[in-house]
Design a protein that fits this description.
Length: about 250
Amino acid sequence: MAGKTITVALLALTAALATPALAQKAVAPAAPYKAVAVVPPTDMSDAALIALRGRLGEATKKRDATALAKLVVATGFFWQRDQKDAANKRGTGFENLSTALGLSSKDSAGWDILAGYAEDPTASPSPGRKGVVCAPADPGYDLAAFDRMLKATQTESAEWGYTAATGTEVHATAAANAPVIEKLGLHFVRIMPEAKAGSAAYQRIVTPSGKTGYVSIDALAPFGNDQICYAKEAGAWKIGGYIGGGEPQ
């Protein structure tokens, strides 16, 4: 299934990082919404890019900064943050990536995030940057319908994910043997913060009918998350940029 590998690696991290932020804001109450269909992104078939992701995976597994540095462009690295390029143009690409993800410590969650990117088989062209592709790729969807859904539910895009397959089961509680209260198609679903510690294997959501329930975290894909971007340097794929707020230092 396209992009399924990234689901476990990144959505778990996304939920862990995003839930506190959502809990701090006034969360709109659960309510019915008109589901917006999605077309899941497809895998990238470029053999050289696949090979780069493999080397990235090895470097992150070993927390090997030296090996990682060789996979990042020497110059021209961009860090798109808050609608502007936050990269230090006097620094190397690796220095900027390290700053963005807090890689100075081997215990940093940034290494786990990079590992998730390495496993993501999807990528899509970066608007406005010729020859650059970013991952994870977003699904295909109706932007106008999505905007209407956000307004109707008084939510933000960060509060949404999407199903990875049709027939996704929604359980009454965070357990595989809990009653199934609804089944979902391929569409966006609203992610809800958990008021108390729950199972890390399940995510609390709101279904289009307005019901609150739980789905297995590997049945959901992240949306609107930070992205790693790849560009060619001297004809070879390298990590060329990062889109996102970065990790707290």
